Amino acid sequence: MNTNLPSTSSGQAEARFRHELYPYRGDAQFLDGTLGFIREALEADEAVVVAVPPDKTSLLRNELDQEPAVTFVDPTAAGLNPGRHIAAWAAWMGERGEEGRPVRGIGETAWRQARNAAHLSELRHHEWLINRAFADSATWSLMCPYDSADEDESVMRSLSDCHPLIRRDGQRVPNASYQATGEYPFEALAAPGDVYQEIGYTHGDLAAVRSKTSQCASDAGVPQEGLAKLAVAVTEIATNSIRYGGGRGTLRTWVQDATFLCEFRDAGYLSDVMAGRIRPAAEQIGGRGLWLAHQLCDLVEIRSTPQEGTTVRLHMDIPR
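Request: output the structure for the sequence above.
Response:
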């Protein structure tokens, strides 16, 4: 047993990577909590990476007076797809953690910019996955400010369940509702639209999959740039079905809430919960399909069980 883990204010051992939720209301509470977190880091000679919305960036810059140990990054650079954010944090914090220097991150997810229920669900899943992605990162910690004003209690509770720690009154304390083990409690995928197109595919059908998807997406109003990205993404996902999902799959396409959706179903099982979230190494052979889908699409939903197989949904926004 590792007896050298850091301790919380209650004296209990905690995971090496510290992931804490900071609920706040209004700018004054935001500053109080984040500045306290930053001061702790500076006193410990730690670097700080801040990824918060522009209005919050301005608030912190005014208080910090160009502190060299604090780096501000643009959280929109990775896009709104939560599937890209773990790789972004790994890059931001890796750049600041030269020679093993501890790094603290402050990341406020753009909850209010969530486009629909599916996007909101994937944002929560991302917060849960952070604990898996950085579990062994002893020199990193991350605080997630969350403006709890006007939010109902169920939303706050579901978000809290994704964080092992909560910051209260300047102290981080264990979160009793966080479950360190077990599978993520996914919400069920929304039913397809009333009108959808469906085809089956197997070996030799990739061209037909691309053609069908491109035609349906074009008819739905997806712009040319989106069509080119979608062609690559659907090829990768359909190829995965054929290689790892029993040699065949089913494609459905439909439009819903100004979004074009492609759904791929097959009999395979995807056991790696981090698949597609970590940037593949340059020398890596294979394993790039889901990564590319996340980079090219506006949202990717994945559900996979040994009993029901795998479903992958690709979302492309349609300009209004």
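The CA atoms of residues 53 and 76 lie 8 Å apart.
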